[in-house]
Fold these 4 entries.
Entry 1:
Amino acid sequence: MSAKINVWSVVRGHLATMRHHTEGRVSIVDIAVFFVCPAFVAVVVYFACLPFNDGLVSALVNASAILLGLLLNLLVLMFDQKSKTADLLERLTEPSADPGRNQAPAAHQPVDRIKRLSLRATVISESVANISFSVLLCIASLLSLLAFSMRGSQLPVDRIESLAYGFNVFVWITVSFTILMVIKRVFVLFTTSP
């Protein structure tokens, strides 16, 4: 696979956010909520052999396209916030090169503000990983739905239809939970001062 389209680092980055920050260990609850529960529901849908009607396929394709645009805009916003946070951290941790400026040396900067900015930078980086992972899932859903809609219609529900339905159930539950997490993080970022 070309290194330009290898997305394993995005998946690894998202998985790295599934941990207890204070203890630095993997959060079993996060893994269960974000992956095990959606997989369980997807397996149930797969074995239920539910029909995947055209209206649902069309609605999911539209939702994927709209959500992709919104998530990509949110990535641009996060890049801007990361740049601002990095600039603030740099100004606080390095003494001013301009002798005319009245900036205190790095040793006199409030340690709490530097810690807050470092935590803010970490939350922004993790949010970028979560948003990027959601974008990948939306693309996967879009591709599977387009492939499914091109295969033609058959009256009985077959295993390919059940697989497509189950896969999309997994994707959309995971995307929904991930977006809820990102919304909470973005809300905290914008309601706390840097």
Entry 2:
Amino acid sequence: MPVLHDDPPNATVARLCLGGHLEQLRCTRGLTLEQVATTLYVSTSKLCRIERGRHRASVDDVARLADFYQAHGPERDRLLEWTRLAQGRSVYHSFADVADASCRDYLDVEAAGLRAVYMPQVLPAVLRTASYARELLGPVSGAEADRRLWLMRLRQQRFLQTGSGAVRVLLGEGALAPGVGGPEVMREQHRRLLHAPVEVRVLAGHRALRASAGFSVAVLDGGRLTLTAREGEDGRPSLSPDRKGRTAARFEELWQAACDFRVLAA
């Protein structure tokens, strides 16, 4: 059986790629979830969770779906390989005390395929200094703060190891104001941004106000699966497919309207 990549995807990414490809196979054949579920005698909710990457499908389940969709040869092998890889745990499993399952899914995707981030009010975690991050934690106990900072450092390490140069970071003007920790903390943070291996642009305040909700865009499986992440009211990131590329297109629109951070800082 051929491997998917020289560096196999982590369990979360494999689960999401599997679900996205199964959904594509179903939609290409003009079938609804209900039609497939009725034919294969499985629940619609289970199929929905598999397609959304929220359920670890068994090899038998995926083999039945592959046969039903007439996916043969390398395509079938690929689906089954994803299924086996998806049985593993998140790289961040040991941080369950400070990151729930939804957040851990996002962190795995962030390391594997992050391409664009828009943050209107604060800096993204992968670019924060320890001082800046500690200020954002506020009145958190010392033990919990240490765990969250440790998690942030791991995110940054993985981010730098997985081709961060392809990532574009768009900040709202307010994210650079000295409101977090004061001028000294922000001067240190600005120096970090100037040397970051990513392209950073800044969106003027009036434009950022009209695009106040932050989001990120990740690309997986060689560009065949694009996901978007947004924070819910509880602060947890929620992953979903970028339907028709609307979120990616929105980022491009905002990016073109922004200024290069290095020019502003000069």
Entry 3:
Amino acid sequence: MLASTGIKGLLAYRALRKMNGDGASTTNDKGNLVTSSKLSNATTPPSVVAMTGSAYAISKMTNAPKIQRFLLKSTLSASVAGLLNAGLKRLIGRKRPRAETGPDLKGPALKDKFNSMPSGHASAVAAVAGCIPRTSGPLLLASTAGLAATAVIGRSRTKRDAHHLSDVLVGSCLGFGVAYAVSKLEKPVEAEVENLKQNRHMQK
């Protein structure tokens, strides 16, 4: 599974490099969906967590355990990735491409112009994409769509001069890594919960 996570990061990175190389004439087209502020606002870590969390709450009213499990893992992964990302941004203190003044690396900083590394948007989207089950059929297509979404968000952040390409790569790897960690912890947690239920049942 770790190798699969690394491959996902590499594929998203290569897709992003190709997308950044194509369509250079549209770099300043702010009306483009990829560079729109709406897409940027919808893919912030808090927005992604809110969307997946709301979808999970709605899914609880249905009999779809696989979807519920995916949405729960997505919410947890996006939350953890967002927190780690926020801490790393302020610890590293890398200047955003659009910032006109200041050192490239300032170190610990709270100002937004030094919050370039890593990309929170890429982390959040990659965290969700990394939670998609790796099986054949429709889920394989969904996983591919998740990679494509990560690449699109990466292009959006670089075209808006909010991040360097390396920020997006690190953010994507962070998101995929968190999703991998959450998936590895899922079975032990489920086993512990099941044991607690059985113990309570025996005590009654």
Entry 4:
Amino acid sequence: MNPTESSESDPNAAPPYPKVRQCREDEAGAILTIINSAAEVYRGTIPKDCWHEPYMSATELQSELAAGVVFAGCEIDGVLAGVMGSQHVRNVDLIRHAYVLPAYQGHGVGSALLAYLRVQTDRTVLIGTWSAAKWAIRFYERHGFQLVPETAKALLLRTYWTISDRQIETSVVLSDSLLTGETARMLAERIEDSDHPCHPAAL
């Protein structure tokens, strides 16, 4: 039976329970498959000059891992159904590369992953995503994140990410705490260590 379908033989059967854990080193291939499968939703949605094929290459993933991105994975019925990365960058934590296989979307995978990562930090959590990805923005807003104003967006993206001006122009930032232009500036000035900004090809 398809694990995304309910059991017809037992209508009272409990739905599959998402199990969240840290991804293993040998799961890089599975992580890459999930990212590129789920990122197909961006095709034709984000600007054409921001789309590339594949959306993430194996080399790019290894670069992200080397830069300190740590992936959590969510299993349903033993299948790795979604991944979400976190990265300590200077004085904040970034949520990175959050993707769920299309067949498992709507099963609480993203919510379980986000909850798992949020309880592991007491620092400000920032998320960058494409401004055209309205569904992703709504998802994070439902979980208490707030869009930072345009006056703060570029500053945060330049401080905590290493991306092009074009990507800054076409992206948004969400925060788990209310950030105004002034408080974002204060956050960026309170750099607590010498970590380098992350080096993503995508948010």
